[in-house]
Specification:
The protein is of the alpha/beta class and 239 residues long. It is 41% helix and 16% strand. It has one domain: TIM Barrel (Alpha-Beta Barrel), CATH 3.20.20. It is globular and about 45 Å long. The chain starts with a helix and ends with a helix.
Amino acid sequence: MTTKNAKDRIALALDNIESADALKGLIAETAEHVGVYKLGLEQFTRFGPKILDLVRETDRKIFLDLKFHDIPNTVEKAVRAACGHGVDYLTVHTQGGLEMMMAASAAASLSARRPKILGVTLLTSIDQSMLNGDLAVPLPTGKYVAHLAQKAVNAGIDGLVCSAADLEMIKPSIPHDFDVVTPGIRPAGADANDQKRVATPEWAIRNGATLLVIGRPITGAAKPGKAAEEIAKCVESAL
């Protein structure tokens, strides 16, 4: 059995699942080795807020990944509404700017149960060529992420979501107790799918990640519970 500490470093992304019963079964099968469940735009849009109850029933943490990005007033009100669902983590886009992130942090602080506000830096589907070409940002990805990380710290939010490839670059910009969440985690030999900047669980933990977001390597496995257990063992070995 894996340690509690290892389990709490894993956030299972509940994407690409089209029925509530299937979600419930997946959570039941993996809960022994997963401490956090992430519900994003797909499932929140498909099922509505009631889908969060499936995670509450397991006494695991809720990561509501809606990536708010709007004018400060709208984001402030959206964060207040999200806090009413009793979630533990909530995401905003750092590219929304300093004022928007400050509004999100202030709104969360008014909640009786304050979630951690995490700033999404650069999506793991965006590589250097896309950043410089499609998005017309004339910076290396690492430097751009470090810039966004510093803005997040200045805004008073609780942590970042960034590629494991950017961990070394952001270290000088963040406090030692900042939460650092890394998506795009793949065990050695796993398919990267549509993620362009990926890392193994061990590498990410050893380089400063505090929470790993893992989806298809577990949800797409023939035996999700066993896959979650193996990843938890990888995390435990790196702690």
